[in-house]
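Lab notebook page, bench 4
Experiment: in silico fold of construct C2
Operator: M.H.
Input chain length: 170 residues
Purpose: comparison with the prior construct
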Amino acid sequence: MSGKRLHIVFLLALMSLAFASCENIFAPSIDNTSSGQILSDQKTIEGVFTNFRYAYTFKDTSVYSALLTDDFMFTYTDYESGFDVSWDKPTEMRTTSRLFDNSQKTEVVWNNITVMIGDSLNMNVKRSFNLTITFNPSNIVRLYGFADMNLTRPVSDGVWKIKKWRDQSF
């Protein structure tokens, strides 16, 4: 092999070795050593809120659906008409799916729990939240308020699900 060809082969081998040992700064590796989990098993009240945040962050309707009982009921006050409006789980799922499909980003931040009353099977939780919905860079909706939720589970070591949710945002 000629000296020039040997030099090229050596350079290519060196470059291959250099590229193989580099990390892409635009795609950093995932830290699997973290003790925090992305999803919870919902056996705690906080686990329900963790999964809710996940569902909104990643626009995951299957995770969101698993948060709700089959007889779920959502209620909010229509301030223009002065009446409460309610709907069931199928309507909630269609509405949430449309929200996820038509927004670029949804982010919910759960703040302080102001009320938590109940027992091992039924719990009423009132918690403040901030919801930011980005439809596009010039159309961002920010909602603040309280979620007044009734959570239930069939047995004391089962998973919590949301049975009723009264939205008190402004």
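Observations: Residues 16-22, 24-35 have pLDDT under 50 and may be disordered. Residues 3-20 form the longest helix (18 residues).
Next step: discuss at group meeting.
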